[in-house]
Amino acid sequence: MACASTAPVQEMSNARQTIAAAHEARAKIFAPGQIAEAERLMTRATGALELGDYVSAKELAVAAQQQAIKARQQAISMQNN
Predict the structure, then answer these.
(1) The model's pTM
(2) Separation of alpha carbons 43 and 16, rounded Å
(3) Which CA distances in Å does 33 have to 8, 27, 28?
């Protein structure tokens, strides 16, 4: 598992950027549960990264990004209705 020995820098960055984009779309107002879950997942990803558990960190970062995408989409949808 060569990928398991490498820190998931790109996945962590992608997740942070997507969470930021969700905040810009006012997800805290329009999708509070989803953005909170994305942030919880990101916190767990950061903890796993600090412990050197790169497999978990990558999985959690990807999950955080997916949750942030949902939060952003919901926020945009709510504002357009």
Answers:
(1) 0.91
(2) 10
(3) 26, 9, 8
